[in-house]
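To start, one record:
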Amino acid sequence: MKAQTGATLLIPKPVYCQEQKGAFKIHSSVQVFAEKEWQESAQLLAQEMKLSVSKSKEKAGILLLKSPELPAAGYALNITSQGITILASDEAGSIHGLFTLLQLRALQTNPVQIPCASIKDYPRFSYRGMHLDVSRNFFPLSFIKKYIDLMALYKFNTFHWHLTDSPGWRLQIDKYPLLSKQAAFRTHGSWTEWSKNGSRFSQEGNAEAYGGYYSKADAKEIVRYAAQRGITVIPEIEIPGHSYEVLAAYPELSCTGKPYQHHEFCIGNPNTLPFLTDILSEVLAIFPSEYIHIGGDEAGTSSWKNCPKCQALKKEKNLADEHELQAYLIKQLEAFLKSKGRKLIGWDEIINGGLPPDATVMSWRGEAGAITAAQQGHDVVMTPGETYLDAYQSNPSTQPLAIGGFLPIQRVYAYEPIPAVLKENEKKHILGTQGNLWTEFMPSTDQVEYMAFPRAIAIAENAWTQKEAKNYPDFQQRLQAHYLLLQRMNVNYYRPSAFLEVKEAPAPDNSGNTITLISEIYQPEIRYTTDGSTPSSSSERYVKPFVIQGKAHIQAAVFKDGMPLGKVTSYQANHHRAIGKKTIFNTRWSDSYPAQQENTLTNGVRGSFTYSDKQWLGYLKNFDVTVDMGSVQPIQEVSITFMQQKGPGVFLPAYVEILGSEDGSNFVPLKKLEHDVSPENPELLFKTFAYALEQTKARYIRIVAPNVRGGFMFTDEIVIY
């Protein structure tokens, strides 16, 4: 197939793009001219294309000109065989135009030939961000610049730099030198090993110390470098939780005054606020961004509840609870930032106890926080699970260890940042969206790139392209050309996997279950069987979803040139007798993970690799449910699957027992199964408890699974034959 090279391959997809015949040839004599407003943009473009800047408009082959009628941050790019013109009404637009040109050049097999086109474009959202956690693992300045280069090519305009967290402080603060001399270095490089071995810090200069920090000069260089590329750097300084590293160096600011005991600042300590404003003052001198991120997430309240100073402050200020105590501190920080002409932004926990009047919310725990904030008139940046690029992007058994979840690129692309429940006057508060990278399991820059790309490219289109112009098959087709760009930039991107995702759901008439096979590979040749046999090049070719009745052992693989790519995907499909039957919940699920509520366990739909897909029902207590089969009947098989994922605290039950009853009152124990899976196993795994029954008749099947670990238990479907 002949490679496509035209402007219609651009990502994000422009508002208007018309390809034309011919190409403009880049050679050493081509010069760049810019009107005075766009001189810095001209210098950047000339630098990137290895050209010179001209003072004469007539002699230049590439022009950057002002066009006041274009929308803010918008541009027009016209490429003819005689020259290139970029029009913009503001600096942001000129930068977007030049990076469109640079991206188009990078997509060409011959990058000196730029295909002719007429493009008009502007962004959907004003906030288009990428986040990077450098606390859990530290990355060099050179990589931060590479990360920003990639962001600029895909029209991101905000770099959220997560500089501080419990595993390490990463920014030089002159007034408190222990933050960089001690809190920036730990005893183990591996975040997991560090956690297992006491979570202790080391001293700068010690041979065994792992870590690092950015000097003020380093940080200012990143701010300058990003600004030149149209990107604002928002620093994050975690307050009041996630501050274990600070309190190890300055334990007098914790509630007990002892190191290695707390993650939260003592809010009742009169020295806490001056300490924090001292730090923020130095941060403000480095970062000119309108927003300063103060974290605010996952702060525990137990230390405050047991602290005389915190309780005294709570009483003095007539605060109802510890959430209002945290809000009291956040409001003081917001007032401080406001007095310096800045704005506070924080994770959605800052809603608890009452938002400061001008705070902006970064909504990560789903959309609830965003909806609440927008309805209250606060601006919001959307960063829910669909933007968390630390999740697995393929079958976890085939991937390096990750924090958990399952987020293939198609699901990233499908995310819509504006919650549907918002009214028109509330939607304006959704500023945009952002991709998040938490680096617990990303020890190297290669692994960061592997987790970020190409999924970050999907986020880029979500943030820029108009909703009505988005189309996943079209995006997938354009994406194929961008692997060349990523290769040229030496990005260790995730290669499309031959693994097939299988989706199963009852057919509309409940005559069987519909099976859908999903591949990341563009236009794949999929062959499959339903009898458990290994597929070959002569097996049935998958062209559309198909229906199975009863049980079917599906084996499927992607083929190329008559040979399978990778391993065969195996899936046990079940159109079982419990589908649609009533489920009686003797104990209720957690409201945090309601899935499909009463319908979850008998809806015929299996969960995927993540408990956040709304098919896994979450329990924080013992699991105890009863399925009503409608009449007394022979029961031959019962099975139920649970998930384990140690990182976020998801564990298997101690055992699973099934009981049977004909009247719903008198239950007879049938079978009980235990397991030998260690709760310390760090891998995502699934355990199916399957029971073969003989000469059993029942109308009601009760399943009991005790929660002995105290975390979550997740299950997705009760299968009965």
Notes: The two ends are 49 Å apart (CA to CA). The mean pLDDT is 96. The longest strand covers residues 563-574. The longest helix spans residues 322-339.
